[in-house]
Specification:
By secondary structure, the chain is mainly alpha-helical. It is built from 4 helices and no strands. The chain has one domain.
């Protein structure tokens, strides 16, 4: 079975084509040029998400399992976390660990979707 090119590689090729071949030809139409730049960026972001999703999901699931002391799918664990936070069912230490988890998850997502976003702890 042919597995190449994979989806991220195809999206990267689309983004490269748009940036190298289409954008330069749109000098006369700045609005369309801007929309093509957005499309190229979206293709790049989705490619990055596809490449990193398994590792990011695994890390998130591991943190949730440690925090909640239970097993389950990522969706179920996130639902349980949301319920516990909503019900104020965590001790102060658990709330701190939950906050650390949420920050780590947000940072991991931002590293893919917006790599230039400032992720320093001291803002």
């Amino acid at each position: 079975m042919q597995n190449r090119p994979d989806h991220p590689t195809l999206l990267d090729a689309v983004a490269s084509f748009l940036m190298a071949d289409v954008v330069p030809k749109l000098e006369a139409d700045k609005a369309l040029q801007f929309r093509v730049l957005i499309a190229a960026n979206l293709a790049t972001v989705v490619a990055g998400e596809l490449r990193t999703q398994p590792a990011r999901s695994s890390a998130e699931r591991s943190r949730l399992q440690a925090l909640l002391a239970t097993e389950g799918t990522l969706e179920d664990l996130n639902r349980e976390l949301a319920s516990a936070l909503k019900a104020n069912a965590f001790s102060p230490e658990q709330r701190e660990r939950a906050l650390e988890h949420l920050i780590a998850t947000a940072k991991e997502t931002l590293e893919v979707t917006n790599p230039r976003f400032e992720l320093a702890d001291e803002l």
